[in-house]
Amino acid sequence: MGIQIEKATQTRFDSIDWKNLGFGRYFSDHMFISFYRDGKWDDGKIVPYGPICFEPSMMTLHYGQTIFEGLKAYYDVNGGVNLFRPEMNAKRMQSSAERLCIPPFDVEKFIEAIIELIKLDHKFVPKVKGESLYIRPVCFGSSCFLGVHPSQEYTFIIITSPVASYYPEGLNPVKILIEDQFVRVVRGGLGMAKTAANYAASLYAGQRAKEKGFSQVLWLDGIHHEFVDEVGAMNIMFVIDDILITPPLTQGTILPGVTRDSVLHLARQMGIKVQERSIKIQEVLEAYERGTLQEVFGTGTAATISPVGKLYYRDKELIINNNQIGPIAQKMYDTLTGLQHGIIKDTYNWIIHIDV
Ligand SMILES: Cc1ncc(COP(=O)(O)O)c(C=O)c1O
Fold it and tell me: Chain-centre distance of CA 158, in angstroms?
C-alpha cells in the first residue's frame, strides 16, 4: 500500500520569491512524517507543510538527540526530476542513527517517501541551472521526559525547499579560514554522524570567521590542530603534484560525504591518482611554498564543488591557482551536474529518475 496523503488546500508556490531563492528560506506544500512508538515505526504519511506541536519537555530540545540528512532533486533537461544517490543518504542516516541510539528508519521507505513527496510537489523543483529542490530528512527523540538517556519515541520528518546555490559565490572560489583555536569534533566523538551537535559546536568559530569575511572554516583535528578534517558543510580535497588527496574516513572525525565518494570514484575512473590519507596542514603549507599545491576544493550536496581561492592560516595567506577554479574541480563540477540534470548519461546507476 502506498503512503497515505493528505493534500494541502492552499499552495505556498506564489509566496516564493523565485528570482531570489537563497538557501533554506522557502518550503514546498507537503512534508512526510512518521512516528516511532511502542518499539516500531508507523507507516508514515504525507501532510501539508506546517507547524508541529510538542511539549517543552520534548527530549531533543534538551539533550540534542537529533540526526538529519541533505540531498537534492534536480530538474532533468529531458523532462522529469532526478535524485542523486539517495540510498547513500538513507544509509548514512542509519549509521548516524546508530551512533545517536536512534532506531533506524528503513532505507526503501526513506526513498519511497521522497519520491512521493517529489511527485506531489514537483512544481517546486526550479528549472534554473544551479538551483534545485533541497530535501531535508530529520529525525529526533520526541518523548516528553527529562533525564539523560535515549528517548523512547521518535519523529521522522522530510521537508523540501527550493534553493539557489548554498554559497552566494556560486562556483566562484571561496575564502576559507583554517581554524587553529576552536575544535568541532575529536576522535571517538560524533564527527562521522550528521547530528545537530556537530553544527552547534561549529557556530561560534563560524560566526567569527564570517565577521572577518570568510565563507567557512576549515577544521583541523581536535587534539593537535595538525591534521586537516573538513569544512563546515563540505569535505575538502587538495591537488598536490597531480595527486588528489583527501582526509580518510577511518578516523571517524569527518562526514562520509556522498559528493566526496562520487568525486573519488570519478577521479579514479578518469585516471587521476587518488590518496585518501591523513594530511597535515604543514604539508599543505609546504606544497604551497614549493608551488605544487595546484587546487583546493570542497565537495558537498549544497554547492556540489566549491573551489577554494584563498586559505588563511594564522597570519599566512595562500592564494590557490590564482584564485581561479582549477581543471579538476571544473571537470568534477561539470560531470556531477551533468549527471544530476540528465545531460550526461548515467552509467553509474547513481540517478533515480522520477517521471512527473
Ligand atoms: C560537515 C559536513 N561535511 C561534509 C558534507 C558533504 O556531504 P555530502 O556530499 O553528502 O553533502 C556535509 C554536507 O552535508 C557536511 O555537513
Answer: 15
Same domain, 20 and 125: yes
Burial class (CB in 10 A: 0-12, 13-18, 19+), 56: exposed
Q: Is 214 left (phi over 0), alpha (psi -120 to 50) or beta?
A: beta
Q: Is 248 in contact with 291 (CB distance < 8 Å)?
A: no
- Tell whether the model's pLDDT for residue 342 goes beyond 90: yes
Shared-domain flag, residues 226 and 245: yes
Residue 78 CA to ligand 1 center (angstroms) comes to 28
For residue 351, tell me if it sits in a domain: no
Ligand 1: list residues with CB < 6 Å.
70, 230, 233-235, 255, 257-260, 299-301
195 and 106 part of one domain = no
User: What value does the mean pLDDT take over residues 165-183?
Assistant: 84
Mean per-residue pLDDT, 253-258 = 98
Residue whose grid cell is 510538542: 54
> Which residue, among 297, 254, 255, 247, has the nearest Cα to 277 in the 3D structure?
247
Domain around 224? 174-340
